[in-house]
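Recap quiz, item 2
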Amino acid sequence: MTPHAHRRARLMTAMQHGIAVIPTAPEVARNADTHYPYRFDSSFYYLTGFVEPEAVLVLIAGDAPQSILFCREKDEAREIWDGYRVGVTAAKDQFGFDATYPIAQLDEKLTELMGNLPKLFYPLGADAAWDARMLKIRSAVQAKARSGILAPDQITDVRGLLHEMRLFKDASELALMRRAAAISAQAHIRAMRFTHAGQFEYQVEAELLHEFCRHGARDPAYPSIVAGGANACVLHYVENNALLRDGDLLLIDAGCEVGGYASDITRTFPVNGKFSPAQRDVYQIVLAAQAAAIAAAVPNQTWDAPHQVALRVLAQGFIDLKLCGDSVEAVIESESYKPFYMHRTGHWLGLDVHDVGDYKVNGNWRNLQAGMVLTIEPGCYIRPADHIPRELWNIGIRIEDDVAITAMGNEVLTAGTPKTVVEIEAVMHNK
Ligand SMILES: [Mn+2]
């Protein structure tokens, strides 16, 4: 059984008795007759491995479970222009479905399939057009009431079940995430080797994309952030068009996607290859916060534990740097750290870079468990201000790794990316 078929079986078991309808993502126009590069819906892909647009998965759960794919038909003329299509016949065998039908028959077939099933599962509320379409099909089933056919009387958002499944990565997912992480590590090393003063940020970005693509990772998992100097203090800076200057730091937040799975790495290093004393002082604080947070990312710690641990190290560092006064407790209590650290220490990682899965269960931070993958990414961002020592101005540092929780502790998937001051300076000096 493929991992995808196994996941379908698990979802049907969780559904107990009902029908699920899970569409993939639509194609999106960029301008005129040009589309953005196509990206399938993550949950649809998780259950099918099928990458073409215009496809819908239907699962019938109950005594005789069935998994059915609706997809595009073979079309010689369209395939000459737009490329290969698997087609209805090949999709059945190749992807292990019980039945496959042309996508054009979706509404008509659903009207048959939905009869006498008590529950309808689909991504409720995700798309207004789908909501309307599902209700219309359900009404068509209701219209058959006099022939003894009942329509589902309960509609459930299937994302609840799906997201909980996706939160725990299986062996095949972890293998893809390791590969994505390894390629991204190589890309960060390439960027460190290539960087020098007088370049534009986009020239360093080109090196990242080159390294992703030449290893088969065609797409970045998210737009790369290549932020020199003051730009590093803009959290989602993506213009990437400024000149890199001697004496500035460069913050790169970039990762590729492999087989649909994201990697997400941030490194910060000096444009000229050598940290200034002030840059090194701040860097060591963020690095210590990250090390402490990674050590806390282990089973039976809560999701929030790495953040709290990182926050304590950062707060002490901000006191040492004279950015904040008082005690660690007072800095955290009063949130006087927030001008310098305004985001949380990580997020789930998977098919989506900010992956699905609840962070709290019944109002409490959930416990970390084997199979979960998260990022650990503390930072420090110091904007110019009169009360701040001038040598700290415009220092923006973030250090981010991808961490898989294991039974015994954790595995840092991105460990191949230079991180200490010594490692970074060595890579940059051995171009
Ligand atoms: Mn991240």
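The two ends are 47 Å apart (CA to CA).
The chain has two domains: 3-166, 168-429.
End of item.
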